[in-house]
Design brief:
Elements: H1 2-12, E1 18-23, H2 30-41, E2 46-51, H3 84-99, E3 103-105, H4 121-134, H5 136-139, E4 145-147, H6 155-164, H7 189-201
Parallel strand pairs: 1-2, 3-4
Catalytic activity: 7-carboxy-7-carbaguanine + NH4(+) + 2 ATP = 7-cyano-7-carbaguanine + 2 AMP + 2 diphosphate + 2 H(+)
Function: Catalyzes the ATP-dependent conversion of 7-carboxy-7-deazaguanine (CDG) to 7-cyano-7-deazaguanine (preQ(0)).
Family: Belongs to the QueC family.
């Protein structure tokens, strides 16, 4: 949902989009199937999936044999994947250098989120500083910018922005426990945040539920 809106905002601002997904050993592949579908639907120049085996280190309900909770608790939840967004942005940074791109877009959000430290503005600002001292593009080129247009939006804001941009949210998958066909469980934290966003926006929920 968030990634789809991010792509659409970038496209509206005149950017050509090279979409990146990371197969990191998550519980299901349906979100990766949805990512390819959404990238085509929103006019990305290309969509690339890079494989990184985070199951080999585990530490998360999404990459180890730990149950996905139906209710969020206090603190950082067990669905947090250690260093996931750092790894994803690092791969995106490398690809951006190869493409000659100075702009990296990501759909992180610090309002209606699950408490992940790598979805906060401080992380995005720190990674941008890193990108500009760790790369040839940063040191000798025009520099790298990290765009996080959803950072201050609620899930309702994101739903409304998606409607304005004409996004078919039924093509997206957010659920931590989606089945092989991409149908959502309706109970995990990701499902509850998503459903609440549509309710708060006064929009019908187009999510396909199991």
């Amino acid at each position: 949902m968030d990634s789809a809106v991010t792509i659409a905002i970038a496209r509206e601002q005149g950017y050509q989009v090279h979409a990146l997904s990371v197969a990191y050993g998550q519980r299901h592949s349906s979100e990766l199937d949805a990512a390819a579908r959404v990238a085509r639907m929103l006019g990305a120049v290309e969509h690339k999936t890079v494989h990184v085996d985070l199951r080999s280190i585990g530490g998360s309900a999404l990459t180890a044999d730990i149950d996905v909770p139906e209710q969020g608790g206090e603190g950082i939840p067990v669905t947090y994947v250690p260093a996931r967004n750092t790894i994803m942005l690092s791969i995106a940074l490398g690809w951006a250098e190869v493409l000659g791109s100075t702009d990296i877009w990501c759909g992180v959000n610090a309002v209606d989120y699950s408490g992940y430290p790598d979805c906060r503005l401080a992380f995005i600002e720190a990674f941008e500083r890193l990108a500009n001292v760790a790369t040839k593009a940063g040191v000798e080129g025009a520099g790298i910018r990290i765009h996080a247009p959803l950072m201050a939006m609620s899930k309702a804001d994101i739903a409304r922005e998606g409607q304005r941009l004409g996004i078919d949210f039924s093509a997206t998958v957010s659920c931590y426990r989606a089945d092989a066909e991409g149908r959502a469980c309706g109970h995990c934290d990701a499902c509850r945040l998503r459903a609440q966003g549509f309710r708060d926006a006064g929009l019908d929920d187009p999510t396909r539920y199991a």
